């Protein structure tokens, strides 16, 4: 069994008004050392053992459903889950 951690973030060239609002709130709370905030999504997918290429499957899922390739980037980590 495998656990895949997917991180989806806006591309650097895309404005992030939600991140700007969070940064403004942090500054009002005296956390002025924060210079930028980008909001994203975190997903965990669990895969059963099988005869397939996990990287190919995750890339297909990310490009077709989990992210918007026009405005978002994604990265992921695959870890083998032992003993479940």
Can you put this structure into words, describing what you see?
There is one protein chain. With 84 residues, this protein is an alpha+beta fold. It is 30% helix and 31% strand. The radius of gyration is 17 Å and the shape is elongated. The chain starts with a strand and ends with a strand.
Question: Which descriptors would you attach to this protein?
Answer:
elongated; three-stranded antiparallel beta sheet; alpha+beta; 3 strands; Mth169, Chain: A; 2 helices
Number of helices: 2
User: Strand count, sense and closure of the main sheet?
Assistant: 3 strands, antiparallel
Residue share in helix: 25-40%
- Low-confidence stretches are none
Name given to the CATH homologous superfamily: Phosphoribosylformylglycinamidine synthase subunit PurS
Quote the CATH topology. Mth169, Chain: A
Q: What string, H for helix and E for strand, traces the elements in order?
A: EHEHE
| Number of separate structural domains | 1
CATH class designation: Alpha Beta
**SS class:** alpha+beta
Distance between the termini: 8 Å
Integer average pLDDT: 96
Question: Which word captures the global form?
Answer: elongated
- CA-based gyration radius: 17 Å
Order of strands in the sheet with the most strands? 2-1-3
CATH architecture: 2-Layer Sandwich
Number of strand elements: 3
Share in β-strands: 25-35%
């Amino acid at each position: 069994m495998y656990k895949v951690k997917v991180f989806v973030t806006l591309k650097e060239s895309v404005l992030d008004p939600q991140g700007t609002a969070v940064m403004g709130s942090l500054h009002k709370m005296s956390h002025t050392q924060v210079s930028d905030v980008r909001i994203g999504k975190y997903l965990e997918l669990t895969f059963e053992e099988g005869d397939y290429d996990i990287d190919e499957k995750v890339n297909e899922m990310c490009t077709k459903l989990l992210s918007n390739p026009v405005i978002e980037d994604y990265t992921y980590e695959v870890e083998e889950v032992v003993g479940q």
